[in-house]
Design goal:
Layout: H1 3-16, H2 18-53, E1 58-62, H3 67-70, H4 81-93, E2 97-103, H5 105-116, E3 133-138, H6 144-151, E4 157-162, H7 164-206, H8 208-216, H9 221-256, H10 261-264, H11 273-302
Antiparallel strand pairs: 1-3, 1-4, 2-3
């Protein structure tokens, strides 16, 4: 196969179908940008989970004298010194527990005033209304139920709370956004595939005389189809390149500059450039192979030798 002939045919095809080729490039770029964005969103959720789940604690709140009248779990009265000692001892014996920190009512009141001191209700709260608690850090945050089962309902324990639930709504929202991006990506990929097939068919129809002569002189199907396949692959590769640029620019302006989320949301551990760069080869590979395969399938039916 002469490379010069194939390259010349590619150039002819791209010039004849410039508008449709541009549409293919744009649709492939958008769909692959959404695909890469969905992958990065999934990695961002995973990174945030690893970061925050490692920091949150399981809190065991103890009964105080005020809870006896309001909480059925504290009907036997406030927690005793012996019960507190027994709870702490049992916690330290558990294999899943990494560390235990005890917070007194005074410390809880101090922390409350630091966080909510400006609110009207803060002035009505007194230290004796605050609950003592144990802040438990687990080796594996997923094993929260082991602690909950062991201490929920025990005398002197008002409740056992897993702080992960506070963050779960955020993670669910981000996962929903990722799924929505994947759905839009799927729709864009279907549109891109249809454009590729139509572009290949129009290109093949406009060059039917050339392909007819090639059939007569005994050219193989692969030799006839190769220029059309490479046209589609070239357009897809351009779209993949544009998608890569969109991902890089999006990361730059959303996290580092422009919106500067890394400065405005310093408590969030954002993904780094390495996470983006590792996705680019996959985006380019899909951008190259997807149009080529679509063109090959379309041509098998359209150009039979």
């Amino acid at each position: 196969m002469r490379a010069q002939f194939v390259l010349s045919e590619i150039g002819v095809g791209l010039r004849r179908n410039l508008t449709m080729t541009f549409a293919v490039v744009v649709s492939v770029a958008l769909s692959l940008a959404l695909f890469g964005g969905a992958l990065l969103m999934r990695e961002q959720v995973s990174t945030m989970k690893d970061y925050w789940y490692d920091k949150v604690n399981v809190s065991i709140f103890l009964c105080n004298k005020n809870d006896a009248a309001t909480s059925p779990k504290c009907a036997k009265g406030a927690v005793t010194a012996q019960q507190k000692q027994q709870i702490e001892s049992d916690l330290e014996k558990m294999d899943v527990v990494a560390s235990v920190q005890r917070e007194s009512a005074e410390e809880a009141y101090k922390h409350y005033k630091e966080q909510y001191g400006d609110t009207p209700i803060a002035s009505t709260i007194t230290p004796d209304q605050m609950q003592e608690s144990f802040r438990v850090k687990l080796d594996d945050p997923e094993k929260y139920k082991v602690v909950a089962t062991a201490f929920a309902g025990r005398d002197g324990v008002q409740s056992v709370q897993d702080q992960r639930n506070i963050l779960q709504n955020l993670f669910d929202l981000m996962n929903g956004m990722r799924i929505a991006a994947l759905c839009v990506m799927g729709l864009m990929l279907v549109i891109a595939m249809m454009l590729i097939v139509n572009t290949v068919r129009v290109s093949a129809f406009s060059r039917r005389r050339e392909t007819g002569i090639m059939r007569l002189v005994g050219a193989s199907s692969f030799y006839i189809q190769m220029p059309f396949i490479m046209e589609a692959a070239f357009a897809g590769l351009l779209g993949g390149g544009v998608a890569c640029i969109m991902l890089l620019v999006g990361r730059y302006f959303m996290i580092d500059h422009g919106l500067a989320l890394s400065q405005k949301m310093q408590l969030v551990n954002f993904i780094g450039w390495d996470a983006v760069l590792t996705k680019l080869p996959l985006v380019l590979a899909i951008g190259l192979l997807m149009p080529a395969v679509a063109a090959f399938i379309a041509l098998r039916k359209y150009l039979k030798v």
